[in-house]
Amino acid sequence: MRKGGFTLVELLIAVGIMGIAFYALISVFFSLAPRDINARSLTIGAHLLNEKIDEATVLPFNALASQGVAAFPAPFDNYYNQVVVNYAATAEPDNTTETITNYKKVKVTVWGPELNSIEANTLATTYEGKK
User: Fold this and answer.
1) pLDDT by residue (tens digit) across 46-105?
2) Beta-strand (E) ranges in 31-130?
3) Most buried among 32, 80, 108, 128, using CB within 10 Å?
4) For this UniProt entry, which segments traverse the membrane (predicted)?
5) Separation between Cα atoms, residue 69 and residue 71, nearest integer Å
6) What is the pLDDT of residue 114?
7) Which residues of 14-31 are buried (b: 16+ CB within 10 A; e: fewer)?
8) Best CA proximity match to 111, nearest among 75, 85, 84, 76
């Protein structure tokens, strides 16, 4: 006559199956954890990049100039940025030129911990409307 419950063999099989399933879940978690750190660093870097390019493009055209490597203020002082400004060719704004034109190409680069570098480019121009 059998009483309710599990036998020792059934219990050992159940524990073995649960152990294998738990190991699979833990290995997936540990393989994704570094990606989460990189995603966080990339998100912070993209936010700082947008902030820096906005700062550069609101300047008057004549004040828009290259800036050397600089750290962001705390709490992001382990992220760095550089702004490079060149005159852009009138006919082909993607190309830079030594000639003074009404276009400036602005390239902002940001890098930091676990973030190699990200960059954004924009074009600034003077507006000389008809009077």
Assistant:
1) 999 999 999 988 889 889 999 999 999 999 999 999 999 999 988 888 888 888 888 999
2) 67-71, 80-88, 96-97, 103-112, 115-125
3) 108
4) 12-33
5) 7
6) 81
7) eeeeeeeeeeeeeeeeee
8) 76
**What pLDDT score was predicted for residue 128?**
60
What tokens appear for 88 in the block?
A: 């852009």
Spatial separation of the C-alpha atoms in residues 3 and 64, rounded to whole Å: 85
Q: What is the Cα–Cα distance from 92 to 95, expressed in whole angstroms?
A: 6
Question: Cα separation of 72 and 74, whole Å?
Answer: 7
CA neighbor of 55 nearest in space, from 122, 129, 126, 130: 122
Cis peptide before 75 (omega within 30 of 0): yes
Instruction: Please state the length of the chain.
Output: 131
